[in-house]
Amino acid sequence: MIETHAHIYDDQFDEDRGAMLQRAFDAGIKQIWMPNCDHETIDGMLALEQQYPGICLPMMGVHPCYIKENFEQELNIIENWLSQRKFPMIGEIGIDFYWDLSYVAQQEEAFIAQLRLAQKYNLPICIHSRNSKNGELNAIVRCIELIEQFGWSDLRGIFHCFSGNLEEAQRVISLNFLLGIGGVATFKNGGMDKVLPSIDLQHIVLETDSPYLAPVPHRGKRNEVAYIELVARRIAELKQISFAEVVNQTTINALNLIQK
């Protein structure tokens, strides 16, 4: 299996990171993709890449929740890294309406700037799109609109932690993006039971978003990469296919994305 989204550099893993990763490897995880947040998370992420070469793969980008007044400085740091070496993806980037609406305009500006970087370096992107608490502000739709306005037909990537409806899933797929499916698929009211049966497996990749969004039966506790097996088994259940088929196809989907 390939874990396409895990913050394994997070300080929640400082006490047992090695053991946590060993559990992941024992569970059959072959790669772990690490989304960046801002300049402060780069060193820890790259240290893990060095410790586990070819296994822990770093992205480079600025997370929308870390977009503040100084976002242009953050973008300069990201572009400097992208100009120095190869990264498999730009991420995580996007729009967050959940936590703080003070910097939405800056989030959109930063998102477009990072779409330009994706085009410049011909890289896929990892999108964070979280709706407002009351559901009135739809970040998935807003990201789709900005991608459509940007207009680069070769733009590709993952809508990470997808939790939208079937219509939104189909719009994402029509843009040549994959759906990152994680612990929400195991939640009783997560809504994925109404979406995943209608989505072809070729449009899905696996993720945990560790240390966040642990799947059932660990919901509310610290998430970890090994729990991705629970996500894969839930997808198999919802789609009435084998666990092995989910593992095989989602691995192919992930590798195809970063090897283009």
UniProtKB/TrEMBL annotation:
User: InterPro entries from the xrefs?
Assistant: DNase_TatD-rel_CS, Metal_Hydrolase, TatD-like, TatD/YcfH-like
Any coiled-coil regions, as ranges: none
Which of UniProt's keywords are assigned here? Hydrolase, Metal-binding
Keyword Cytoplasm in record: no
A molecular function annotated in GO for this UniProt entry is: hydrolase activity
Q: Which Gene3D superfamilies match?
A: Metal-dependent hydrolases
The UniProt record lists the EC number as 3.1.-.-
Asked whether the keyword Repeat is assigned, the reply is no
Enzyme class of the recorded protein, top EC level: hydrolase
Q: Which CDD domains match?
A: TatD_DNAse
The cross-references to PANTHER family, in alphabetical order and at most eight, read:
D-AMINOACYL-TRNA DEACYLASE (PTHR46124), HYDROLASE TATD (PTHR46124:SF4)
Family membership, please give it: Belongs to the metallo-dependent hydrolases superfamily. TatD-type hydrolase family.
Q: What's the protein name?
A: TatD family hydrolase
